[in-house]
Write a sequence for this structure.
């Protein structure tokens, strides 16, 4: 059974999915880290590859940019394809001076002004958590790999925050109990859909820009330069 957005047959997608936003990053991971990788979806260039990492079957699939795109793909993966775990891996903007370029962030909770939950489920929800068990595994794996990992609250926006006309006003609207360390554009819909369907989700991000950093990661670096984050996600998935 396929969907309007995914041509994969049932059984061609693993129970655990590593989910970058960029389809070329999905291709890069499949070609460089998976054994016997097979392209199982190319509709709208949302490439999905299923193969094995150290003997475990995994799927890596692109989500596209933004909550609507992520919301469609993760809903179908959970609801139709029987996926149990999704780790989003992507880029983020760092919001703390101690975060350096390519530092890895693990989201514990994500806040969004979006009405995604209200539209999907008539739920006036703007704060949702990642799966605690997945996060514990990722945190433990990072320690074993000696990879520094920053854990904290993040925010999920409907637009690229760099393009906001008045970012300080946006920041003033964030509830005081939320202390965002980074911002991205997909995690809220992923976490919310996982919660709605009784599944598990987590989000790893690499810092690619920040008001505290002069350098901004290039397009090529964003596509292929996030290897530590990729390895952390893959190694963690062995324990799911």
């Amino acid at each position: 059974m396929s969907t309007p957005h995914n041509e994969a047959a049932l059984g061609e997608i693993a129970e655990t999915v590593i989910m970058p936003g960029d389809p070329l990053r999905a291709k890069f991971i499949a070609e460089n880290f998976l054994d016997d990788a097979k392209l199982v979806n190319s509709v709208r260039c949302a490439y999905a590859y299923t193969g094995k990492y150290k003997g475990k079957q995994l799927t890596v699939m692109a989500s596209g940019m933004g909550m609507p795109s992520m919301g469609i793909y993760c809903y179908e993966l959970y609801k139709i394809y029987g996926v149990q775990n999704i780790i989003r891996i992507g880029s983020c903007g760092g919001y703390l001076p101690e975060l350096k370029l390519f530092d890895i962030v693990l989201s514990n909770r994500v806040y969004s002004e979006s009405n995604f939950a209200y539209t999907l489920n008539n739920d006036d929800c703007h704060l949702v958590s990642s799966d605690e068990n997945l996060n514990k595994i990722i945190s433990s794996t990072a320690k074993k790999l000696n990879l520094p990992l920053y854990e904290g609250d993040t925010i999920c926006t409907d637009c690229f925050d760099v393009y906001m006309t008045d970012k300080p006003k946006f920041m003033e609207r964030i509830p005081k109990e939320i202390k965002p360390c980074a911002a991205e554009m997909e995690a809220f819909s992923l976490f919310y859909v996982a919660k709605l369907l009784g599944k598990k989700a987590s989000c790893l991000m690499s810092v690619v820009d920040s008001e505290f950093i002069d350098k901004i990661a290039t397009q090529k670096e964003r596509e292929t330069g996030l290897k530590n984050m990729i390895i952390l996600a893959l190694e963690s998935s062995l324990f799911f």
Notes: DSSP finds eight helices and ten strands in the chain. The chain has one domain: 16-237.
